[in-house]
User: Fold this.
Amino acid sequence: MAVDFLLGLIAMIDYFGAGILMVLVFYFFRGKKWWCLLGQVVFLGILNIEVIGGYCYPVQIGGYEFEIVQQGLALLSLIPIWLYNGRQGHHSKSFQYFCYAFYPVHLLLLYVIWQIVI
Assistant:
């Protein structure tokens, strides 16, 4: 496991060694049992908030002020992962091309909006 972490750092993969640890968390806590889901939340929370960290958003609720770590919001991705039932979703040629085009087209639209605003 330490070798994988070091290879992630050396190879400069996404999230470096923490990316390797995230994959291992999903491997060790696979399944739909409550302790697997709890393990994913706890260990991915530690990795995303403490290890990777990042920008913090100040939040004030009811007179109390605290910060939310931006990378901690990645834990919300666990919801669709847990809801996945193992079956392939809808697919057709038109839907396939829509999915291929969506990412670059929406980035282009965001860039155009940004140029208009600035």
Observations:
- The mean pLDDT is 86.
